[in-house]
Write a structure and sequence with these properties.
By secondary structure, this protein is mostly helical. Helix content is about 55%, strand content about 0%. It has a two-stranded antiparallel sheet. It holds the Pfam family SLT_2.
């Protein structure tokens, strides 16, 4: 997912980077300046408390051209709603989602009781993002997210997430070789690293927030939505109170509409 708006990214950047960080590393639009950028970004990271594990992960990254290609080619978000839902398999997500809800009603009831987010919304996001965990990505997370932080197109949006990824490595939350989606998203519901660091929660009680664990990922997704203003019991279709919260999960209008429609169908 490309989660949150630019406003949220700016707030996260302020939280992670603070006001005393070094001069921002110089972005670039080709691989040529990536190594120099890493040296500059390492100084920023060190100033923010990232230790040797995180810094070593940064220096081991490589410019990811596949990530750049994916960032330039998100054409599905320009489709009509009907076509978007067709190519993303909405009917299959709804059918499988109903089965998943029926198979584990206690889990979804517990999540709704704690966070106020209905099962259908969480299930629709889970199905849309990774086919219920069927494919969570094979890109190196740290390389992907640092490539996007270096790339001038949306450097401001991705820089705090790159810093978040280094912090996660440094704290042992993810491996330097952790795999995710093309934009560096992690786990069952595809959290960007800065959001994983901020909103990730331990849902299964093992003492750590692991987004490759389904229960942790669903709980973290519910926590994200609640922290963004989800109102328990309020509607989530367009024009209703919680649709604006879905908009903070992903900025694409057709994605937002599809999630709301699929969630309603899953919940009956």
């Amino acid at each position: 997912m490309l989660s949150t708006t630019r406003l949220a990214a700016a707030a996260l950047c302020a939280l992670v980077l603070g006001s005393g960080s070094a001069i921002a590393a110089q972005c670039g639009n080709t691989a040529a300046g990536f190594d120099a950028w890493k040296q500059q970004f390492a100084q920023e990271a060190q100033a923010q408390g990232v230790g040797q594990r995180g810094l070593q992960a940064l220096m081991a990254t490589s410019y990811n051209q596949d990530t750049i290609n994916a960032d330039r080619n998100q054409k599905s978000f320009r489709y009509s709603l009907d076509k978007f839902m067709q190519i993303r398999g909405a009917d299959t997500i709804v059918a499988q989602g109903r089965q998943r809800k029926a198979q584990n009603p206690q889990l979804y009831a517990a999540l709704e009781q704690r966070y106020g987010v209905p099962a259908g919304v969480l299930i629709a996001i889970h199905g849309m993002e990774t086919g219920f965990g069927g494919f969570m990505g094979n890109s190196n997370v740290v390389s992907a997210i640092t490539t996007l932080a270096y790339d001038c197109r949306r450097s401001g949006f991705f820089t705090p997430h790159a810093m978040g990824a280094l912090m996660m490595v440094d704290r042992g939350m993810i491996s330097p070789n952790a795999r995710g989606a093309k934009h560096g998203e992690l786990g069952h519901t595809q959290f960007l690293p800065g959001n994983a660091l901020r909103y990730g929660v331990d849902g299964n009680g093992d003492g750590r927030a692991d987004l490759t664990n389904e229960v942790d990922a669903l709980a973290s997704t519910a926590n994200f939505l609640r922290q963004k203003g989800w109102r328990p019991g309020a509607g989530y279709q367009q024009g209703q109170a919680n649709f604006g919260v879905i908009q903070q999960w992903n900025a694409a209008t057709v994605y937002q509409q599809a999630i709301a429609i699929m969630a309603s169908r899953i919940d009956g």
